[in-house]
Write a structure and sequence with these properties.
The complex is a heterodimer of chains A (about 170) and B (about 425). With about 170 residues, chain A is mainly alpha-helical. Chain A contains 3 helices and 2 strands; from the N terminus they run ββααα. Chain B has helices spanning about 30-35, 70-85, 100-110, 125-135, 150-155, 160-175, 195-200, 230-250, 265-270, 305, 315-325, 325-330, 350, 355-365, 375-380, 415; strands at about 40-45, 90, 115-120, 140-145, 180-185, 205-210, 250-255, 285-290, 295, 310, 385-390, 405-410. A 10-stranded mixed β-sheet of chain B has the order 7-6-5-4-3-2-1-8-9-10. In chain B, strands 11-12 form a two-stranded antiparallel sheet. In chain B, helix 2 (about 70-85) runs parallel beside helix 3 (about 100-110) and helix 4 (about 125-135) packs across helix 6 (about 160-175). Chain B is globular and about 60 Å long. Classes of the chains: A mainly alpha (about 170), B alpha/beta (about 425). Chains A and B meet through helix 1 of A and helix 1, helix 2, strand 2, strand 4 and strand 5 of B.
Chain lengths: ~170, ~425
């Protein structure tokens, strides 16, 4: 069996995640608006990122989708995030609860430090740390679980991500 | 609701772990898919020695393993982690600070450019120790806070452990370490999660990680502690509300890998992720678990016997990561490897049964996870609910588990106040 990775967006009616090839929400029955199928897919980073960088990217994407009404679908959510039943997207511009940019660095900076992969093999960045690419989209429709998951599921006791490290003097 | 009572355990209550498995088979070749995945985040049990006696401890920590890595071996492992591309490590135990050379390991991480934090129960973690650790390069510490004082001390098995943990959290903050806390969700702590947050928030913490207590190790012997699958219907709206409260307090709400999946609050709880929702288990794909004996797993929580890919004394970290069957598991499986409810779930391609650890220690194998909000909602829609009951006992060794059976029964909606 070949399983195509679903692209999921929030139903504007019930906030459940729904495949974007659905015409109606399978959970609440609401007809999904025309823009639903055109919802932008969150891009997978082309490089390996730390948890902090992934978090920063996620928060950035969150702000973007909130500004767009959750991918052009959700317009609600209100000013405050009260955890309400249908609050698909936290409010636009909600800052990360801690400075994911850490010591003056940024996700982009961290990504840049790692950005050497992407063409199918390890590359030497000049440091001792090899950089490996994540899967590209063509690798995803294999039916296996081997995909470029950008969600690092926190094991038990794992604290939230470290702030991004400052520039490494000894590298590059 | 269970009532907390005074702890009544004597230390140590742990058996001595059997030596780690050695010379495990590796595949002869590395495949492309094995090269594509590299560990981003490592969680390292540096010793199994512990000064607490937690009722939910999956590793039955207490006594050090008989074959823990030497300092030289551990330092070499740090170098191998750096070469493999590990970007962050969290030291755990037991209690990491009970390993005499733990600060050397912290320094080694710093020298290799790997940010390192620790997760601790905090009973013996003094301000002086934290100051030394910060000097060595420790960037953050997460303290386990599992209730109010009575509840926490009952769960941790030692009177005074709550005050010690709170003192350690306070000291960490005062030293400028990034201070966070983590909480087990079980039938003792669940009703008071909001109280826990309000008690800890004034200390200036930056994040809160929550995990469901699962039946592994000692928790397998106390099934009455477990939140039942149908009770997730009540829990998740409260978690969403707590997320809102954390936002207001400036605390990062960080649901763990077994808090899920894909219910109506998913976008609230995991809005910080790039896709805005959970993905499948990251064991062996992005996460790396290390036991003090040098055993390598895809996730630190996974049971030792089934999920150890190899030992660092026998093979390199890279070889184990790339060529051991247990670490390849999540890279190779398909939806057809799922079973039970998860096999035909709407979210199966994305979720793949959620947390491998939770499924394995509950039902004996991965791929069917009853601790799922979406599943509970679907059951409820059909007028049903699921409950897990013990079937076979855990043998009593570190990282062991028994098995549970799922009982599907009519939902008792009146008891929950639903129409």
């Amino acid at each position: 069996m070949t399983v195509t990775r679903a692209h999921l967006e929030c139903c504007p009616s019930c906030a459940r995640h729904v495949r974007t090839d659905e015409g109606r929400c399978p959970f609440c029955g609401a007809e999904l608006p025309p823009g639903f199928r055109a919802s932008p897919v969150a891009p997978s980073p082309a490089v390996r990122l730390s948890r902090a960088a992934l978090y920063a990217l996620g928060v950035g994407a969150l702000s973007l989708t909130a500004a767009q009404g959750c991918g052009g679908v959700i317009a609600g959510g209100g000013e405050g995030n009260d955890g309400g039943e249908a609050n698909c997207c936290p409010p636009y511009g909600a800052p990360p609860p801690f400075d994911a940019g850490g010591d003056g660095d940024s996700a982009a900076g961290d990504a840049g430090a790692d950005a050497a992969g992407g063409d199918g093999g390890a590359k030497d960045t000049g440091s001792d740390v090899p950089v490996f690419p994540v899967l590209d989209a063509a690798d995803e429709d294999t039916g296996s679980d081997a995909r470029s998951d950008v969600w690092i599921s926190p094991p038990y006791g794992a604290p939230p991500p470290e702030p991004l490290p400052g520039p490494r003097e000894e590298e590059d | 609701m269970l009532q907390p009572r005074a702890p009544n355990r004597a230390l140590p209550i742990a058996p001595v772990a059997k030596p780690g498995a050695r010379r495990l088979p590796l595949a002869p070749e590395t495949r492309d898919v094995d090269r594509r995945f590299r560990p981003i985040y490592a969680v390292w049990e540096v010793t199994l020695a512990c000064d607490l006696a937690c009722r939910h401890c999956g590793s039955r920590a207490g006594r050090a393993r008989p074959d823990e890595l030497t300092t030289a071996e551990a330092l070499d492992l740090v170098a191998q982690m750096a070469r493999l591309g590990v970007k962050e490590t969290t030291l755990i135990g037991g209690e990491a600070y009970l390993r005499p050379d733990w600060l050397e390991l912290v320094r080694a991480h710093r020298e290799h450019g790997i940010p390192v934090s620790m997760t601790s129960g905090g009973r013996g973690l003094t301000a002086a120790m934290l100051a030394e650790a910060k000097e060595a390069g420790l960037s953050g510490v997460s303290l386990s806070i599992d209730g109010d004082e009575a509840t926490h001390d009952r769960l941790r098995g030692v009177a005074g452990s709550y005050r010690a943990a709170m003192a350690a959290l306070r000291a960490a903050k005062e030293l400028g370490l990034r201070a966070t806390f983590n909480t087990q969700i079980n039938r003792l702590s669940s009703p008071i999660l909001g109280d826990i947050l309000e008690a800890v928030a004034p200390l200036g913490v930056r994040g809160w990680q929550l995990q469901l207590t699962v039946p592994m190790g000692r928790a397998a012997e106390e099934p009455e502690l477990l939140v039942q699958p149908h009770e997730l219907l009540e829990l998740f709206p409260r978690l969403a509300s707590l997320k809102g409260r954390c936002d207001a307090l400036g605390i990062l709400f960080w649901p763990g890998n077994n808090v899920g999946y894909f219910g109506p609050h998913e976008a609230v709880l995991r809005g910080h992720t790039l896709r805005g929702h959970a993905a499948s288990c990251g064991a062996g794909k992005a996460t790396l678990g290390i036991e003090a004996s040098g055993a390598i797993k895809g996730c630190p929580s996974l049971p030792t016997d089934r999920w150890t890919g190899g030992n660092i004394r026998d093979d390199s970290l890279q070889a184990i990561w790339e060529r051991s069957a247990p670490l390849r598991y999540t890279r190779d499986r398909t939806v057809e490897d799922l079973w039970g409810y998860c096999r035909s779930c709407y979210y199966a391609p994305e979720c793949m049964g959620g947390c491998t650890w939770t499924s394995t220690v509950t039902l004996g194998r991965p791929g069917n996870n009853p601790f799922c909000h979406h599943r509970a909602l679907e059951m409820d829609r059909r007028g049903l609910r699921e409950r897990v009951v013990p079937a076979t006992p855990a043998p009593g060794e570190p990282f062991d588990h028994g098995t549970f059976q799922i009982v599907v029964e009519p939902a008792m909606r009146e008891a929950r106040g639903n129409p």
